[in-house]
Amino acid sequence: MTLHAELHRHLGGSVVPRVLWRYFHRSDAELAQRFPEYPGFEEFYTKPRKSLDEYLELHTLVEGCQTLKTLPYFVYRLIRGAYIFENLAYLEIRYTPYLRTDAELSESERIDQMAEIVAMVGRASRLPEYPIVTSQILCMHSRLPNAVNRAIVDLAAQMPSYVCAVDLAGGDAQYADRLDEFVELYAYARSLGLKTTGHLYETPQGCYPELIPYLMRIGHGIQIPLRYPELLGQLAARHQCLEVCPTTYLKTGTLLDLQELQVVFDRCFDAGVDIAICTDNAGLHNVRLPFEYESLLTHDIIDFKQLQACQDAAFRHAFAWPHSDRPACLLSELLKSEVNTVALEAV
């Protein structure tokens, strides 16, 4: 059995449609009335959108449900599904903690409550019955004030037992007017010793080379090999990894055909740039990580050797994976040790 690492999964988009619909019917009368039958909700929730901005609006549907009280419900089901159905050994969960705080509080009170949110997600994701190594990536947000985003960076630095990195989310087309601000926030994060990733070069409108030097990984980044392949050498020299989420680009209208990703993989492999294959929003897509692998293989976008290279890259670039090797190597050493023990006992 192959064990996998997932580096790009949003907490808001991780809830599979059936679980979310059941939650509505148990706990939210207004949304239950809006979606009385499951098939209609699944079709609404998982259908492709016309743009990334329209797609991101779906996150607000879930964010309002994920509170201090309900987060254990959602996180438990995320971890259970990841372990049983996806064979995950490692999972980074990313989200904006401010958007899970009580909206009736003042801004300063909500900032203070973020630590409780992070601790709750951390405790809820560490389950003895589902032994997955987990960590959190806290997302700054392109539509939040600078003071809130800076507080998110500070919180990430203050809670290393739960948090492994910071991110910038909220739609990459929104960065332009505040680019200097986001550059300063990333520089500040790096000065605190934090690891970094960011939603960048996902769409043609989200291409900001000013941010690249501050990122250890790039969330999506597909427009670099597609439109700016001259940048690939710099990424390879910095050992930066792209977090490529195939189904997302069809759901957001960024790509019209999955086959367009062949150029992304070919140019990155040729340039020596690592790719980790991810799901992004497994619930919104109603897919799991092994499906993303299978889809790329069956469309002849990558071969099995390249798939294994991407799987290796995911563990190599994982921010909080505690071992020097991926699980397959660890299991091989364990089995070798057992074989040697049996051989010695037989002598």
UniProtKB/TrEMBL annotation:
User: Any idea where the Adenosine deaminase domain is?
Assistant: 5-320
Q: Tell me which Gene Ontology terms the entry assigns under biological process.
A: adenosine catabolic process; hypoxanthine salvage; inosine biosynthetic process
Which cofactor does this sequence's record say it needs? Zn(2+)
A single Gene Ontology molecular function, please? metal ion binding
Mind telling me which Pfam families this protein's record contains? A_deaminase
Q: So where does this one cross the membrane? A: none
Q: What Enzyme Commission number(s) does the record list for this chain?
A: 3.5.4.4
Record's keyword terms, sorted = Hydrolase, Metal-binding, Zinc
Q: Under the cellular component aspect of Gene Ontology, which terms does the record hold?
A: cytosol
Similarity annotation: Belongs to the metallo-dependent hydrolases superfamily. Adenosine and AMP deaminases family.
Protein name according to UniProt:
adenosine deaminase
The organism of origin for this protein: Neosynechococcus sphagnicola sy1
